[in-house]
């Protein structure tokens, strides 16, 4: 019960306080998220004052039409490869780093802070730093390549560009994931390691049978965050290469269709396809990991 | 640089305390050496790109293309002046500071006004409101619908429209504050109400100061979110005089990215410097904010 409710002002106060924030959230976040479903059945454009029509499932048919389906399945495939490889490598490395930089090492906290830095710097600065490093006319990467007697145009190379993007994404995002694992590790009771050691467990056994089961909830959280995040992220790709046939993912397609060619009805349909993909994968993964947690 | 966990507390909680108990603190086992080498390599992977950026920024125009990886022969601080004036960074920085501070301040205040009565169940539908904010984090990608809305409201290409969207779009604030409020005693509200303290006076003089730690994290999270936003700024800020520093840097990259890396590196450092400084001084807030933010 609201203890301030004895006066009229005290009864109205909570709602008066909630109203502006809730109105802002409903108007600019929730209503658009629902409206995007309706928009996906129209041919609305991004240009003001152009008439629009209901077109039924045309946008979805167009996405899977004979002329477009090969390229679009390629994009879906690349979205999945991106999300899967980022999630798996990111989590494996982040957990290893968290164990490695766990406080036993002198200066571990400083090392962790350094690894966390890209999270603060943001996508534009991270993108420019790596564009400079991968500068084909003579960056550090080019010198390294040439010392092995080879050369590459890096982000300009259609075969290599996507791999480099995955690398940069992992480099930039590992700080947060590592910090969550670190927080999980700090909560593991010290006696467990002592008991394991008394029982003759070596470093690998301790990692496998003490650390991993104990941080299983953090693994679940991190895996779900990473997969949902990496299925939706496109800013780093936008900065590093832009929308190219060899590097594009679904989320970047939504942006480049919606604001490049201004076909926002079609972009809304791609949004919905992306949403279904994210929802299905997140639910399956969550169910699987929750079940694993109890088995570990 | 203040570090996240100072040595004594980290020492108490470290995962393998048995090592300390065997009392051989200075002994160099091969495993320990490998541990340090890996840590060193990781730190190098994060520090070297930044140092390379600084090295490039200090080169004279043309020096980079002549010798990209070599140590700079000059301290061409003029690059910073040139980048600042050619990119018109003064106006861009002023815009970004305005957007970041206004959005962060407004959404921090709104977060508390929403979170306090909801966390305390002082309003009907508290539970539904909480669920609503959790759901908001898993909504479909609505950029095209948001754009249509902003267009209809006549807010396209205005400071107000951009700030409203950025304030509404960063929805973790209320959830973070709700989580924190659970640790504050409810008896305080009752005592204050008994003494005749009004609702808003109580929120202002008690809830805000008591929530300071989490509000710092919410504020900082919003500041970096807005400062680093590139997509929102690209979509909504068409007029050059409204643009942000991140967008300005990205435009600058489009103009100078091919041949004038000395200027571009200087520009990148100008944009990164305030973030790095802020990070060094408010690291705890940054990290707790980012972890909580990603845990959504």
UniProtKB/TrEMBL annotation, chain B:
It is found in: Cell membrane. The keyword Amino-acid biosynthesis does not apply. InterPro entries: MetI-like, MetI-like_sf. The keyword Transferase does not apply. SUPFAM superfamilies: MetI-like. Keywords: Cell membrane, Membrane, Transmembrane, Transmembrane helix, Transport. It comes from the Bacteria. GO terms for cellular component: plasma membrane. It holds the Pfam family BPD_transp_1. It is a multi-pass membrane protein. Its main location: membrane. The chain crosses the membrane at residues 33-54, 97-119, 131-154, 160-181, 202-227, 263-281. Residues 93-282 form the ABC transmembrane type-1 domain. GO terms for biological process: transmembrane transport. Belongs to the binding-protein-dependent transport system permease family. PANTHER family: ABC TRANSPORTER PERMEASE PROTEIN MG189-RELATED (PTHR43744:SF12), ABC TRANSPORTER PERMEASE PROTEIN MG189-RELATED-RELATED (PTHR43744). This is Carbohydrate ABC transporter permease. It comes from Jiangella rhizosphaerae.
């Amino acid at each position: 019960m609201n203890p301030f409710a004895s006066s009229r002002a005290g009864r109205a106060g909570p709602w008066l306080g909630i109203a502006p924030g809730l109105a802002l959230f409903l108007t600019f976040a929730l209503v658009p998220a629902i409206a995007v479903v309706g928009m996906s059945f129209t041919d609305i454009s991004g240009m003001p004052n152009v008439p629009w029509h209901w077109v039924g499932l045309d946008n979805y048919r167009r996405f899977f039409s004979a002329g477009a389906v090969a390229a679009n399945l390629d994009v879906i495939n690349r979205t999945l490869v991106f999300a899967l490889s980022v999630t798996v490598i990111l989590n494996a490395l982040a957990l290893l780093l968290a164990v490695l930089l766990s406080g036993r090492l002198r200066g571990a906290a400083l090392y962790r802070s350094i690894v966390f830095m890209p999270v603060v710097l943001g996508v534009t600065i991270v993108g420019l730093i790596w564009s400079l490093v991968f500068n084909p006319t003579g960056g550090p990467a080019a010198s390294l390549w040439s010392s092995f007697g080879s050369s590459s145009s890096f982000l300009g190379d259609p075969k290599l560009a996507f791999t480099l993007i995955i690398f940069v994404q992992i480099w930039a995002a590992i700080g947060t994931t590592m910090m969550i694992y670190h927080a999980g590790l700090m909560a593991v009771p010290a006696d467990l390691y002592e008991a394991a050691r008394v029982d003759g467990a070596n470093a690998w056994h301790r990692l496998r049978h003490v650390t991993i089961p104990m941080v299983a909830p953090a693994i679940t959280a991190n895996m779900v965050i990473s997969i949902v995040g990496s299925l939706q992220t496109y800013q780093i790709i936008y900065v590093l290469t832009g929308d190219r046939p060899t590097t594009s993912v679904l989320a970047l397609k939504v942006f480049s269709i919606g604001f490049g060619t201004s076909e926002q009805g079609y972009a809304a349909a791609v949004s919905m396809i992306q949403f279904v993909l994210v929802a299905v994968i997140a639910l399956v993964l969550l169910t699987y990991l929750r079940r694993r947690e109890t088995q570990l | 640089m203040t570090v996240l966990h100072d040595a004594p507390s980290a020492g108490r909680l470290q995962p393998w305390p048995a090592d300390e108990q065997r009392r051989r603190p200075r002994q160099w086992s091969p495993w320990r050496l490998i541990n340090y080498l890996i840590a060193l390599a990781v730190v190098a992977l994060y520090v070297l790109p930044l140092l390379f950026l600084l090295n490039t920024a200090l080169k004279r125009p043309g020096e980079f293309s002549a010798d990209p990886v070599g140590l700079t022969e000059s301290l061409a601080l003029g690059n910073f002046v040139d980048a600042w004036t050619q990119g018109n960074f003064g106006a861009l920085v002023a815009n970004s500071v305005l957007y970041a501070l206004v959005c962060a301040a407004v959404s921090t205040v709104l977060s508390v006004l929403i979170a306090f009565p909801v966390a305390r169940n002082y309003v009907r539908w508290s539970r539904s409101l909480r669920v609503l904010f959790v759901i908001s984090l898993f909504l479909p990608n609505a950029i095209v619908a948001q754009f249509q809305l902003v267009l209809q409201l006549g807010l396209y290409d205005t400071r107000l429209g951009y700030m409203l969207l950025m304030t509404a779009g960063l929805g973790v604030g209320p959830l973070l504050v709700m989580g924190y409020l659970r640790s504050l005693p409810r008896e305080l509200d009752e005592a204050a109400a008994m003494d005749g303290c009004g609702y808003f006076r109580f929120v202002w003089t008690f809830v805000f100061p008591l929530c300071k730690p989490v509000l710092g994290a919410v504020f900082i999270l919003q500041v970096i979110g807005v400062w680093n936003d590139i997509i929102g700024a690209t979509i909504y800020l068409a007029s050059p005089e409204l643009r942000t520093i991140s967008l300005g840097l990205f435009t600058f990259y489009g103009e100078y990215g091919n041949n004038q890396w000395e200027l571009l590196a200087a520009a990148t450092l100008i944009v990164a410097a305030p973030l790095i400084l802020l990070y060094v001084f408010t690291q705890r807030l940054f990290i707790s904010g980012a972890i909580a933010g990603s845990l959504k």
